[in-house]
Amino acid sequence: PIPGPAAQRQIKKRKSLTYAENLEVVKQIDGRKLKRAVALTYGINESTIRGIYKKKDHNVKHMELAQTKALAQACRSPHQLLMKTEQLLKRYVQKHGRRNMAVETRDLMDTAKQLYQKLARKWKVANPPAFNASKGWIENFKSRHQVRKVKFLGEAASGDLASAKVYPQTLRNIIATGQYNQDQIFNMEETGFNWKVM
Q1: What pTM was estimated for this model as a whole?
Q2: pLDDT for res 70
Q3: What sequence ranges are listed for the domain HTH CENPB-type (predicted)?
Q4: Contact 133/109 with Cβ under 8 angstroms?
């Protein structure tokens, strides 16, 4: 049966199909299945299905040349890969921000490259463009996402990171030994603020 107008309105937004899925679309249409029914199966517009069928020779040649499953499944563009990398990197910075921790430039650059490479493998993107996460790119990333917890110079770069990691436990021991309560603990960088409050 041909789906009615109500069913057609439930078609999702246009999405990209893999070459393997394109080939399956062609097979279904060659097997006398209506293009409208195929479109509903994949959740895309009928016009997209017609476009895929017009390029069936290209799809067949691509699948013949594909020597790996990864190439057959490649559908995401390098642009999408970079956009997703930015989203994940923003979450990484926000996570550190919630802990009141600044992220150093080198750490941010290394993390961006690692996320990019992991996504390329996960999405099976064949031969993704090189991505170096340069300082210029990091500056633009900060501007696009209003990131403020990244330090390029100053305390984060010059501080003793090894001692900083160990100190929280040392502080807990001091508090336990002295039996201090929350009202007796102050951040010395905020003493001016506390004085003004008084």
Answers
A1: 0.41
A2: 47
A3: 73-151
A4: yes
